[in-house]
Amino acid sequence: xxxxxxxxxxxxxxxxxxxxxxxxxxxxxxxxxxxxxxxxxxxxxxxxxxxxxxxxxxxxxxxxxxxxxxxxxxxxxxxxxxxxxxxxxxxxxxxxxxxxxxxxxxxxxxxxxxxxxxxxxxxxxxxxxxxxxxxxxxxxxxxxxxxxxxxxxxxxxxxxxxxxxxxxxxx
Length: 171
Prior knowledge:
It is built from 4 helices and 6 strands. By secondary structure, it is α+β, with helices and mostly antiparallel strands. It is elongated, with a radius of gyration of 18 Å.
């Protein structure tokens, strides 16, 4: 087969945060970017060399492949994502990413073997993490503290309230 006639996609399902944040004893058990941030590599004639700091999501991979192949999704599948092709072509587009985690027993202080109990929502600027079992929120300005080191929750910021509403609508 000829690799030039293919679309090759390589991506990971989660990052690896080996205890980067307090309370996390194993990767994939808290909702911080060290755990959630991944990469995606697209190879094919439709994909020039490209790197972006804009927010992209795992659910955007299939719509991107379909778009590159010029296949229109007719709504029957109900894809949650959107093609990354406009971003690859230089368009600036705000996307919202939702994540949920069900940490395994012994991997964090928030284990749940039955259902996800840590949820987050992120834009290019803001990030909200909700610990369902604790009823606790954390809120971060990713632009000012990309390492999620300054929790702004409970400071009556309108952005936090907007993010809480978006997250509750998603749940």
